[in-house]
Amino acid sequence: MSDEKADKSIQSEAEMAEIMSSDDQEAPEQRGMPPTQVEELQEKFGMQTIDDPNPEVLPSDRELTEGLPDDVQYIDLIQYKIRDLDALGLERFHSLESLVLRDNLLESANGLKKLPNKEKLEELDLYDNRIKHISKHINEFTNLTTLDLSFNNIKNIKHLEALTKLENLYFVQNRIKEIRNLETLKNLKNLELGGNRIEVISETLLHLPSIEQLWLGKNMISKFENLQNLKRLRVLSIQSNKITKIENLDHLESLEELYLSHNKLTKLEGLDNLHKLMVLDVTANQISKLENLSHLTELTDFWCSYNKIDSFDNVREQLGHLPNLDTVYFEGNPIQLNAPALYRTKLKLNLGKSLQKIDAMYINQA
To answer: Record's SMART domains (predicted)?
Structure first.
């Protein structure tokens, strides 16, 4: 580029920057670039304005439900930036069984009070909004079986005691510090409290004998306790906590899946009565030896990546005779890091014929 052309280019860029910066200094109430400046830029730099052929225009909150019949049974409004339940005209929907309002901007659920025939509603989904408090009006939906309040800003569990038919309750990623006010939910089967600020598994769990799945990952729990009445529990997830010891699980005789990754475990123990266990995840702990596993004859998946296992003989002793073992993960352990080229072959030789996958890869793909 010649010096003359370069000077003109620099000058043009400076002029454009000056125009843009002057626009930045406009009064706050003025939105966008004034038409005169748009025309000036188009003329000076050969710029064109191209209209979006398919502009996205969100309807108003009231327009979202205007076309729905009064006897509609399911309303599903996801990602519409809804702020006000009152504007939805819920008072005319007398047959509603499911209301899904995921990924909106609701700060309160008080507008639900206008919904008639509350006993008909079975599913209420308020996932990913801005709700800080559980409205007392939620307690009026006495036939709810599923309630999802995940990804909100809730600190306290309350106003749920009348929901005795509730089977699925989701509070993932809130600001909850204590498990409480759930004692009346005798039919609860699935409780999800992952991603909160819980430090203790409270005595509330003693009153929930029907629970089959309990999800407590990404909290600050340091100890297993108050689980002895969960005779029907099939899935227990307590990943990414502060657990140092596997204990107090003796009564969980129905347990099939146990997720303990990213804790502070140094020893495999406390599994003596878990004869139905099929999946055991102890990824990313500080375990140096496999033990107390050889009796788990139903085990299909053992995930033990990123620990300190250094002996193939130890692997064979504990896992080699398990008839249903299908998948193992040992990457990131000394047995893999010290001899990566022989690692998969040695695992195949030391484990039984049922083995199909090592570290997410089928053994016949190696």
So the answer is: LRR_SD22 (SM00365), LRR_TYP (SM00369)
What single-letter DSSP state applies at residue 165? T
Report whether pLDDT(316) > 60.
yes
Phi-psi region of 359 (alpha: psi -120 to 50; beta: other; left: phi over 0): left
Tens-digit pLDDT profile for residues 188-244: 999 999 999 999 999 999 999 999 999 999 999 999 999 999 999 999 999 999 999
The token pair at 171 is 């509070």
pLDDT tens column, 30-85: 455 677 776 776 677 766 666 666 655 667 888 899 999 999 999 999 999 999 99
Amino acid at 90: L
Tell me the C-alpha distance between 252 and 279, whole Å.
14
Please choose, from the candidates 237, 239, 242, 194, the residue with its C-alpha nearest in 3D space to the C-alpha of residue 221: 242
Helix axes 343-350, 312-319, angle to 10 degrees: 30
- The Cα–Cα gap between 103 and 217 comes to 22
What one-character DSSP code corresponds to residue 21? H
Q: How confident is the model over 166-182, as pLDDT tens digits?
A: 999 999 999 999 999 99
Whether 41 and 19 have beta carbons less than 8 Å apart is answered as: yes
- CB contact burial 242-280 (16+ within 10 A = b; e otherwise): ebeebeebeebebbbbbbbbbbebeebeebeebebbbbb
Element (H, E) at 298: none
Contact (CB, 8 A) for 61 and 88: yes
In angstroms, the CA 47 to CA 31 distance is 20
H or E element that contains 178: none
Which alpha helices (H) appear in 55-157, and where do they start and end? 63-66
Which tokens sit at 57? 């225009």
Angle between helix 35-45 and helix 3-24 axes, rounded to 10 deg: 170
Looking only at the bridges linking them, the beta strands covering 146-148 and 168-170 are: parallel
Q: Which of 140, 78, 84, 75 has its CA nearest to residue 108?
A: 84
Give the tokens for residue 327.
């998948």
User: 224: which 2 tokens?
Assistant: 């297993």
